[in-house]
Specification:
The protein is mainly beta and 83 residues long. The chain has one helix and five strands.
Length: 83
């Protein structure tokens, strides 16, 4: 995954609410990096199953992407769930 692909995945992701993480799998494959979003520097880790965590100081945001546009950027997409 290059910088452009990582940025795309982070931009397509949304913040996960409590209990939503179970909709995603986890794979032992991830990348780490650093980005700046709206003036804040974040350390990130993107998992190959479509989740990521952003950390800045004491703040942390758990993100996930289930959009079809993320499919080429991950190894394992979450299964579709009916709401």
């Amino acid at each position: 995954m290059d910088k452009r692909q990582a940025a795309s995945l982070l931009n397509l992701s949304r913040e996960l609410q409590e209990g939503e993480l179970h909709q995603f799998d986890w794979l032992p494959c991830s990348i780490k990096g650093r980005t700046q979003i709206q003036g804040t520097v974040w350390d990130f880790e993107i998992n190959a199953a479509g989740t990521s965590i952003l950390r800045s100081g004491e703040r942390a945001q758990l993100m996930g992407c289930s959009q079809s546009a993320c499919e080429p950027l991950v190894i394992l997409m979450p299964e579709a769930h009916d709401h």
